[in-house]
Amino acid sequence: MDFRIRVALRLAAAVLFFSVLSFKVSAQDVWLWPVKGYEAGHGLAGWPQQEMGGELNFGYIFIAAPEGTEVVCPADGTVSHFSVGFHSTLTSSSSYHFDSDNFNAIFDELVAKGEYESLPVPAEYLCGDITIRTDDGKSIFISGLSGNVPMKTGMRLNKGDIIGEVKYAYHKIKEPHIMLNVYGREGTLDDPMSPFGLKSTFEEPDEAAAAPEWLTREQAEEDLAILMEAYRECFPSLDEIVTPERMRAFEADAAEAFREGISYEGFYDIVRSSVSSRLVHDSHVKLYTPNPKVDNPEQIYVPNVSHGISGGCVFVKVVSGQYREHLGKRIVSIDGIPSEEIVRISRERVIMFDGSNESRVERQLLMNHWFLYNDASRPRTAVIVLEDGTVIRDEWDKWPSGKKYYPQWTENSAYMKNLMNTRMKFGFAGLDDSTVLFRISTFSLNDTEMDELRDSLSHYMDRPNMIIDVRNNPGGDVRVVKKLASVFLNDTSAWLDSYRMVKDTAFRSMKYSLNYPETAIFSGYEKLDGNPGFYKADDEVSGEIVPDSILNYKGRVYVLTDETSCSAASLFPSILVKAGRAVTVGRETGSGYHYITAYDFALIRLPNSLITVRIPLVKCVFDEVVSERFPAGRGLMPDYEVPLTYEEIYTSETDPVLEKALELVRERQ
């Protein structure tokens, strides 16, 4: 029997079943059932752990109701997402974003653009989506909506407010319905049933399983083979950063390391090295499982003499009180390892940088002394030989040690002041009558926050100089980037043929994914003759950006960038620089200029070690033109470089990057 027919037959039984199994929760805590006029559980057409046409449903509930029935907000909260799209599978969807403020208006725009003609699902399954961030930090996602209720992100909603009408959400259910799931405060899938007072079928992922102390050779071989195959199958930028010979050499070295079996800590080190500069280094590849020797050991030990690396030299970076006289001195060796080898070992352990990026590498080498030791969980005595002949036997202390360490970061330190500024998403400061400083620490801004930003920005439009600081900015929404860029562009930007690419593989390694089905499906991607992979235009980035007709800044623009300007925070200055509208001051951005790998990610969990690695699935190409200004494999390079120094991070009370920008303002460059 067809799944969609079976759904209709189950409706009545489901209502009775979940009503009988419902449990009591306090009236003030229970969420309101989203279909107006229905009791909790009424209309339930699908639930977690149910197989739906060959797919296992992990976290959705499906609620059937007549088309046009009003849908209400289940709990007090704020709109964090609002769009129109469709679901190809339970784990794959596509969305369209327009400036219209209601679902029906967006549908009309899509009709006008002819989008309905190329949908991979029946047209009625193009539907409205909304995500509501509740006051306790959870996120409720509801899809399958229509209606003309005005919406914008950041808008406040109260429990019971009308948010739309029932349409169709998922193409394997033929009745009108909505679909709903919930994410917890940490962004992980959460129970969608118990908040409504229903007995739940939701099953938590088995994240609490204890890691083994030891892996046999066979277990280690299996986990490594799965990880290497996942990189080859899933990671679309692999060929740009790793040769096949290098992959094989890495696998051979690893196999030798666990020939007689290996401890969990030892195997973790192998997996970590696979996401480092030794192999698949990328700003969006991430090892989700904490390092047992560094991130969360039961007891932490810290050195009295901490080293840093700058300009290829190893030196004394931070010390406890009794060693203050040695601050800044060059180090010849540590535990018999010469300084040149310390630099090599440390470089091999650098992670999360794109292509040939140098700025992120340099910062990690300066700040992360544990790259050499790779262990903060055990006591040790390090023997440090200085260039002046001094030999220090540094007995590490349990943390907290009660000691003072120097240099000390204070509220006046430039580094700390810049970090504290990130507590606000954006801010403005008039530096003098002619110059304003505009700091933005994220591009994850909702519509309400963008309105507030524009209102604040409008007060400074007559200043002839604007310094925009996108340091300590991890990125965010590309649409926000384009909207903000339109304020500073005085002419329509050149057309960009930006695109996305995914691998052309069977995705067999998705068997071990925590968040994707065994066969990954990417809607809208097409094969291009003579090119590996599948492609589609990146509509969020490509095309022209038209100057804002209401708010448009005409003055000189200086953008502060460095290794902490990542993802969208690299894209924003790139757009302005490419349009000739800004100069950049500081250092290379943390993410690649020409492309990044982002958007969709597979969480691959190795079955024996239980280590989880996040692998990006989509290569997002911003621009393919390589030039002296935009060299291959690098982030956006600065027009005026301010090299990273020890003083900038640890001792200076003035910000050298900002000071350089102010110097350029004075010189009218």
Element layout with pairings:
Blueprint: H1 3-20, E1 44-46, E2 51-52, E3 55-56, E4 61-64, E5 70-72, E6 77-89, E7 92-96, H2 103-112, E8 127-134, E9 139-146, E10 156-157, E11 162-166, E12 177-183, E13 189-190, E14 214-215, H3 217-234, H4 238-241, H5 244-257, E15 262-263, H6 264-274, E16 286-287, E17 301-302, E18 305-310, E19 313-320, E20 331-334, E21 337-338, H7 339-348, H8 359-367, H9 370-373, E22 381-386, E23 391-395, E24 397-398, E25 405-406, H10 414-421, E26 426-430, E27 435-440, H11 447-458, E28 465-469, H12 478-488, E29 499-502, E30 526-527, E31 534-537, E32 556-561, H13 568-578, E33 583-586, E34 595-605, E35 612-621, E36 640-641, H14 646-650, H15 656-666
Helix pairs in contact: 3-5, 12-13
Domain Tail specific protease: 438-599
Organism: Candidatus Merdivivens pullistercoris
GO molecular function: serine-type peptidase activity
What this model shows, in words?
- There is one protein chain.
- Helices cover 23% and strands 25% of the residues.
- The protein is an alpha+beta fold and 669 residues long.
- The protein has three domains: 194 residues, Glucose Permease (Domain IIA), CATH 2.70.70.10; 106 residues, Pdz3 Domain (Roll), CATH 2.30.42; 171 residues, Alpha-Beta Complex (2-enoyl-CoA Hydratase, Chain A, domain 1).
- Strands 1, 4, 5, 6, 7, 8, 9, 10, 11, 12 and 13 form an eleven-stranded antiparallel beta sheet that branches. Strands 16, 29, 30, 31, 34 and 35 form a six-stranded antiparallel beta sheet that branches.
- Strand 12 and strand 13 form a beta hairpin.
- Helix 3 packs antiparallel against helix 5 and helix 12 packs parallel to helix 13.
- The chain is globular, with a radius of gyration of 27 Å.
- The N terminus is likely disordered.
